[in-house]
Amino acid sequence: MNKFTFLTEEQCFGSDKLEILQKRGTKAAITDFSILLGAYVSSYYHIYNDNSLEGRTGWYWTKSDDGDNDACLVDDDGIGDEACVNRRSGGARLVLPFSSMDSIPTNGESGKRARDGILEVEYGYYPQKAVSKDMQERLEREYKSGRLSKTKNSYTTDSRKCDAYDEKFLAKQHEEYEYNGKRYVRVEANSFYDENYFTLSNGESYRDGDNVWVEVQPVKWLVDEKSRIMITEKLIFAGVQFNKESNYHTRDFDKMDIKTFMDKYLSRDLEQSIGTITLGEQTEETEKVPQRKSRLQKLNPDKTKTADRTRMTDTEIIQNWIEAGESVLLRGPSGIGKTERIKKLYPDLIYLKLTNNMFPEKVVGSVNLQTGQSIPPDFAKTAIMQEATEEERKLVEENIQNIYDVADTVYERSKESDKKVVIMLDELLNVKPAVQSLVYTLVLNRMVEIGKGLKLPDNAVIVATGNQKKYSSVAEDLAEPLEKRFDHILDMEPKVGEWITEYAIPQKIHPSVIGYMLSKYNNSGKSEDLQDIGYFYEEPEVGEEHLDRNGCKGRTNDPRGWTSISNTLYNFERNLEAGKYEGKDVEDILERTISSKLREEWSAEFFDFYNLPTLTPEEVTKGMGEGYTRSRFTKRYK
After folding, report:
1. Which DSSP category does 92 fall into?
2. Residues 550-568: tens digit of each pLDDT
3. Average pLDDT of the residues in 23-43
4. Which end of the chain has fewer CB atoms at under 10 Å, N or C?
């Protein structure tokens, strides 16, 4: 008989109530894994009322009976109740007895005391938290390509639908995968809410049948030292019937289906990965044969541990493509820094903005009708002259027709150059197909179609930018032949974390802007990693259309807009310091200024964030400022 069990009703509410429950209460949070397995979650209805994901609790079984064939439970409000034992929507809060303080099971590390004095320990590993949207897409892509490594571990659940009350337990295995030093399982939602959407702790909504990646994490337990038992802080599994047959009595608990499940499967699953992680299934035969390395493992000389490797940012991968001499098309909403980041990487780039009313000769050059001479476009001349010697430049200045011979010489010489000559075609997707067609040969062959054809330097790289139709009403679809001429097409999304690290901090964007963005997205609970904290648009896939529905057209809160707000704050503070607002209501001035730049639902919030009471370093070092006692400060920010 396994040691895992449940609490009794007396331990939850009666004279034997555990000290930890007296301090923490009987309500229990619920894991995403449990919700995906069919658990009821308290916040389901709140999502549609106040969009709140706080207080996400579930109900959990006790091993007591109600004297009338049902089992007692603790509901999502922490109140005692009872239910028929064939239900599957209840969560499980495990109980584990121990004989003495020296025998408390852990993962090998000592526990820690919380502020309320309760000892918290970690014991066992189990799927718990759904990953962020970015990580979901990344893992799904790696999974479908077959690149994810399996570990030896797996986790067993009941495969029956959560409303299949008359069907007996049927085991389903969830294999564990390793990625960048962390472990995950892929779970098909078996939702209590049928066809309705439900929301997990990552802020994303799902419905029955969706595949969701869940991270395997250490299980936290609360230790009741007086009773010598420990209970899981959260409800860690669901979807398993207490028992298929009704007529339950406490004396029969050890025979119940859910107890059998814990004895046969859960105890193994929870404890299987204590120690080291082994990749691949091990047999006597395979243990003798080293695991074969993939092509990339053989080619890559990098000895950095997998867990320590980081993903390239969009900027880094764009630069990697350019340095390889490959053409790039950057697509995405306005204001996210498509053009700006290329200018930052290559300050000497040659810039050509495309418009519907531009003359074709700006792209393909022209012919002098009197002399018959071909005249190259300015951008092509600039690209060649940048790579030409002083003597070659003089030849071109003497006679523009010499540029063809100079171009051939420069082309051959530039094959040995590590420097890249970047030619940017801005707004390529915002011009008509007739204008787009002018750049076909330029993108494919890096040649200008004028006269006999003008070769650009071999180290020239074409980079184009534009908006997709979902972000711009004037955008055009790119003709398929032109789209295929680009080596890479990157659909960029307005990522907050990347903007903060790559642009906002280096460019000294106002600290209030950076602080506000960090607080807003970190508090959302979507991710602990800066690179994953969110997007400037709540729904990048619908862009401006989503903003328009809220009556906020033109107030997109994109990187360009936040840069403008930063400049406004710096200008306002300079004017304030110079005394230009003497006798004026400065709060009203700034509030109105911010509301003219920022979406209505954010402007008041941002103003309040900017205007928070602050202490200068001098005030802190001088006894925390006049009127600020240590106890007052602690109380205010506790």
Report:
1. B
2. 334 444 567 888 888 999 9
3. 91
4. C
